Amino acid sequence: MTNLPYSKEDILTIECKHAVHCPTPKFLKGRTKDDFHLIKEVIHLKDGRRFPNVRLVKNYKRPFYITKEGFRNHKQKKEIEDINKLTRFECTQSELADRLVQSLNLYQYAGQGLRRIFRSPYIYGAEVSSTAIIKHRYFQHMEKVGVSPSPHTVAGLDIETDMETSAILMGTVSFKNEVLHICDRNFLEGISSPEERIHKCFNENCKELIEQRGLKLRVLLVNSPAEVLIEMINQLHIWKPDFCSIWNIDFEFSRFLETIDRYRLNPAEIFSDPSVPGPFKHFWYKVGSRQKKTASGKYMPKDVEEQWHSVITPASFQFVDAMAAYNFNRMGQAKKQSYALSAILDIEETGVQKLDFPYIEVKTEDTGDWHILMQADYKIEYCVYNIVDPIVLEVLDEKTQDLSSTLPIFSQTSDLVNYSSQPKRKIDEWHFEFLEQGKVIGTTSDEMEDPLDKEIFGLEGWIITLQAWTEETGLDFIIELPGFATNIRLYAGD
Question: In Å, how far are 226, 248, 407, 413, 436 from 440, measured between CA atoms?
Fold first, then answer.
């Protein structure tokens, strides 16, 4: 924290927006036991100002509890136990499984995962994550000084893709009054002075929006879809918002993953905060359940707004599907006729809309015909259309406060990946409530019939990036195991 516009004495308190565990890489086990936590903070100053900050904590010790030997007289698991019947231990999150095995001589479960180890009836407080514990401790300090959590800051992101090849043509990120539009220059080939023409079109068609928000647009032309992706994420690393809002995140990230695969990129390097040490950078795109079970026992597809997809990576911001959040925050209300962004903007009476051009014949932009026409004959207008989308996402959240307030309040200490699981969020909440009562909550094993079992995320759909790292060569290769399938891709180093 050097060259900052405040001193240590100016700080009133520090808020935690989220925390991400960076486990000990498997290929470094034996060489190191270190792990890290990236903590996104907001520094609250005594004069009311707030500043975002990224803190890396090495080898954070989290607690767990084991039943004292004199009370190990039961074979059935208990939901809670008196804390005076337990012994408290501490270890890093990466060491937790090994420490539990050693503490209770559960060597038959070594290397088989925590859910197997949790079969023991003598383990307590180990299921709550280290990230939830970290966030709770920040909350406790804020309560002591009488400071309420600040609203989460929200950036917007949107891309447009080729209707024939699905390649990324352009993308825009926006945050407050700053807007960065990145376009593949190949898309604008043959157009003279494209940057100036984009600025002119934006100023002519978005005057009111520009004046209301004091928008400052930058246009950047790059040489490939890969550079569009990289430049967008690099800008988010600089801005450090709390959330990056995307409407229907699965569309964007399916194209991101196609681009990563095509250009043989390392997603861990792109999405992880630059401050994270190389071997501890990681990236997981967790595809949520696409099916639901009806009362009759049949399975049917979930509507796209009912799916909760997650991006797990150590960054100063978290990606969130604003469409899914809008739906989940209104559970119990009547379903909307449409969850298209244009429809929700009207329903919420935001006063803004996706950009339309009166002189263009085709008006139904939700159809493929509109995009095909725009990509062929109205390329500058298409760029400006892309520029507006992330801005209206910010306007929408300012009206609904779904991301800035509602989602954080409902999440409490739980990780964003668990937002669609109310049982999991309740377990995290109860853990800290029971501690205040002198009790510790138990754990859920793989053998238990429990509603939470259906909420545990499997590995299907994960992109798990493992990095081999040597002092001599740095990044040597990457192995990606999509859901631990048999398809293994080896990327040779340069």
Answer: 48, 39, 27, 17, 9
What's the distance, Cα to Cα, between the start and end of the chain in Å?
Answer: 34
Choice between 481 and 251, residue whose per-residue pLDDT is larger: 251
Rounded to 5 degrees, what are φ and ψ at 415?
-70, 150
d(CA 130, CA 136): 10
Residues 6+ positions from 163 with CB-CB distance below 8 Å: 368, 371, 372, 375
Q: CA distances (Å), 27 to each of 47, 276, 334, 476, in order?
A: 47, 17, 50, 12
**Any idea where the domains of the chain sit in the sequence?**
62-129+419-455, 154-407, 464-494
Mean pLDDT of 34-44: 97
pLDDT above 80: residue 2:
no
Tokens representing 350 are 């935001």
Domain 154-407 has CATH 3.30.420.10: yes
Conformational region of residue 483, where left means phi above 0, alpha means psi within -120 to 50, and beta covers everything else: left
- pTM, entire model: 0.88
pLDDT at position 366 is 63
